[in-house]
Amino acid sequence: MSTFDTIVIGAGMSGLTSARMLVDAGQKVVVLEGRDRVGGRMHTDRGAGYPVDLGASWIHGIEDSPLWDLVQALGIPTIEYTVGSFQVGGRPMENFDGDGRRMDAAATAEWIADVDLADRLLLEEIDSSSPGDTYLDVTERALDRSGLPPERIDEIREFFRHRVEEQCGAWIGDLDAHGLDEDAIEGDEVIFPRGYDELPRRIGAGLDVRLEHTVTRVSRSSDGVVVHANGTEFHADRAIVTVPLGILNSGTITFEPALPDAVSGPISRLGMGVFNKVFVQFPERFWDEEAYVIRALGEAGEHWHSWYDVSAVSGVPTLLTFAAGPFGRRMQQRADAEIVADALSALRLLHGEAVGEPLAHWVTRWGDDRFSNGSYSYLATGSSHHDHDALAGPVDGVLHFAGEATWGDEPATVGAAFASGHRAAERILDHAVELADFAARITARERTEAR
Q1: Helices marked H in 176-310 — which ranges?
Q2: Do residues 337 and 297 both lie within one domain?
Q3: Strand, helix or coil at 146?
Q4: In this structure, is residue 125 part of a structural domain?
Q5: Are 224 and 238 in contact (CB under 8 A)?
Q6: Looking at the 3D structure of the chain, how many domains does it have?
Q7: Distances 2 to 24, 225, 227, 243, 285 between C-alpha atoms, Å
Q8: Does 315 fall in a domain?
Q9: Which tens digit of pLDDT belongs to each residue from 32-52?
Q10: Contacts 24+ apart (CB under 8 A), 108-111
Q11: Which of 80, 105, 140, 179 is the least buried, fewest Cβ under 10 Å from its Cβ?
Q12: Would you say the C-alpha torsion 344, 93, 314, 333 has a positive or negative sign?
């Protein structure tokens, strides 16, 4: 029997952050992780000799971001890649109409104005929406009020659907009307040329992390908690559960006694989206040198609608596209070769024979991942942003929850995972943990180990 101050379940960003802060404060902590690696949904593949981020890729907005402050303090290099997450203007884009024709400057300006109008009307509809309204409901009302020609409305309707899929991994009719309220991005966005998982790996270095330890039961009492994993009981005063919402929803971890409604309610109401990535490398670049994104509108972009140029990471011409929501769930059941061929057929509708045969590809299937059952959480119809924070607990003073799904300000992000792990540690310690001190301890420990 092992006894600890705190057991952390899950070695993703939130779990490692909590564990590091608690250990730095003198606690005895063990981290139990079902995977054979740390990082969770931050997963970098370096098999090709350069990093490919199969999970999280971006910091979405570096202004007033504690996560960005940590990245800077640790000296982790980044590349500016600001696309407003899912925008119509701003950074250079190649836009194609529903027939696959390149849009000129006038057509692009008209398209941007159309979406700006629809978005202004959409905000009004969201503000006046009723409980139970979906994002589909409010977008349709906004489009009805726009007065635009039917064919232009159809393109905006498709754009709104894709925006929800890309942001939430969900169908627009399953997202609550307020589902994108917390989606504001402040400041530039960045990606990581050395791979995003450098961050959790450095935070977790030296911690007692037990890989391939899949937790099946968590029992709590006035004496603390008992966590069952791999036929072993781990005893502690408390536990922090940081597994993804998809795992909490699946019931693969039994809680004894059952979780109270204050926590089980948010678990059942919030949704878990599917957002899969398809990276394709080409022998040579065929898109505009300055373009960040290739985007197809309307029928041409019904499924594969946006391609992001991430060539700067590897130095090889590389586009990243997404299969999300219901389409993502369907596509992940197909073989890699079928998925890539399908995506390339849509891309060739835009760029023709200039699209060469791919040199390499990477395809993710987060919806089938048994340690996440999806990509990230979203505000399902009938849930609220309060549900995210309520999910954090604590329960009976001994059971805490952390992870992106437990942070209402910016769920579905690494920033949320980091902030929630920080919050859990502070609640347990009952005092503030300054981020500057947190980063300084990590770098000091690395300098000591390098000697």
Answers
A1: 198-204, 245-250, 261-269
A2: yes
A3: helix
A4: no
A5: yes
A6: 2
A7: 20, 12, 10, 21, 56
A8: yes
A9: 999 999 999 999 999 999 999
A10: 111/155, 111/297
A11: 105
A12: negative
